[in-house]
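Fold it.
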Amino acid sequence: MEISIWSDIRCPFCYIGKRKFEAALKDFAHSDKIQIAWKSFELDPSLETQTDMNAIEHFIGSKGIEKEQAMQMFEGATQMAKDAGIDFNLEKSVPANSLKAHRLLHFAKTKGSVDSLKEALLSAQLVEGKNIDDIDFLAALGASHGLDETEVRTMLASDDFTYEVRQDQMEARNLGISGVPFFVLNNKYGVSGAQPSEVFLETLENAWAAYEKENSGLDIIEGKTCDVSGNCD
């Protein structure tokens, strides 16, 4: 059963939602039969990377809110992250355009699994204060996850995989997805936001029950028949 997850690497709740979903998946009896498809979503495609300020300062300026209100919001997200086993450091987080990072994930899909790289990118942005728009950083990170560093650099210097990112975003718009994280299970069940693991587990079980029913063949009402050997009953 396929589960598609739209998220942005810049999004704190996407990291929290990922961890909460993974916790639910550990308790799901059929987790070995689940395929995860990570989908790209840019919260602000026009964002210009700014290394001279942190995410909190950028948030205050872009939203036009008071620092105290912004700090309360960030502290709330930080506490939610701790509950999910993540130590956010949003005061170090760089306001960085995420397109290159999404393109890197699409490139990684052509080479194998992207799960560990997705985790590393989220951590780089929200915990470690790295610039996810920097080719040197992304090339080194890709290499540490089994990709060829030279290939990554060449790819990022081009427009390769930009189309794939845009296709993911178009699919999201067609589904009416306007915020992330957003989880689509078996093309039938949608879950929006960083829900508690219990909610994810319940949805997984409901989606699996529907998936099994769809793939179990015909529901047959038995009656009198004749078979190909001429036997009738």
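The chain has a mean pLDDT of 93.
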